[in-house]
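Continuing from the previous page of notes. For each protein in this section, the sequence appears first, followed by its structure tokens. Read the first protein now.
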Amino acid sequence: MSRINLYLKKIDAGSPVNLNTFHQILPKQYQHRLHDLFAIEKVSKFKWHLTPKNLSIYEQLKAESVAPTSRVDAAKRGNSHLVRVDFAPLLLRTAHNGELTTVVFCKDQQHETENLEKTGKVNSLLVIENRALFFQLQQTFEALNYMTNDHWDIKDWDVAMGEGNGAANQLFMPFYQRYERCAFLLDYDLGGLTTYSGIERQCPNTNFVLPDNAALLKECFLLSPESDNRLASAIKTAEKYNFLPLVTLFRHTKQFMEQEMLLTLNHGDNE
């Protein structure tokens, strides 16, 4: 509930409010009309009783103070960005035929159900946040096999392109939960860890793809953090999840790593 709605409920209940604060949070078009809208009676140093004088304008104020329910509703009020988009597309490569397909998720329902039915034939989903890696999957899976002790076979995975922190879009969470295993390949930096944190809280079946041998990626950590605080926050978050390879790499290199560096790995070094 918005702050102004809390004040309006107090006014409806006959409870006193802080007049200065209420005036500050009123929409601008009403601020200069405060004394036209209300009969004002002081009851203490900071508290005032407000009694609506013009009920039609007061009801209009109450209606405008209710949070918009959609982007269209918000646009009618002058700012569509007050509300999250109701739709979100997810580009997928399905394991059963290797084709690319787009599934559009909606706040109220799922669209393109025929495309969604093509997914979930396997138990595992890999979400890749980076376009370069998504469209070069053969090299990406070679890199995953190189830097981890797991066996990564592209035939065993549905693969989704997460588009940066868009991978944490709330509309995608039920889709992630369809899979027994959902792995996320993200930048090794504070942004990637923050994106994963937002997902992991709702989808316990997820894991953050990490190198099993930190030394294999040491030369790939070339991105300087914007500040020492961001590096410290990344280390703290990695420690929280017990991502020990990342903790080691952050501390030793003082740098972050972008996903594109996985495409530069010399896989023969690990043979």
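Done with the first. The second protein uses the same format. Note its length before scrolling.
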Amino acid sequence: MIFAASPVIVLGMTMLISDVADALASGQLSARDHLEQCLAAIDSEDGRRAFVTVNAEEARRNADHTDMLHKAGATLPAFAGVTLSVKDLFDIAGEVTRAGSRVLDDAAPASVDATVVA
């Protein structure tokens, strides 16, 4: 399988996904540090309201788990530890999919992830 390198832009931060993945795999960057950089960028630009929901604590638990597996020498997927944001048009299990509309604020949470998210 061949992946094309695409720029990752998080509110002004630009890196190639492949560069982030390489830095994580080599131990040059931890998943937790990468996540905290992204969360800081989101917080610093919060006035833009670019993110409807930020699951920071869950993301921190996942990043810490990835770092633990990496330190234990586990074989990890190529993009393990790379942060991901999902547009509010796709279902994420347990989250309300609002599609950018306040009308859907009281909708029931999705029961499963959309295929593109899973």
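What the second structure shows: The chain has a mean pLDDT of 86. Strands lie at 7-10, 13-16. We return to this in next week's lecture.
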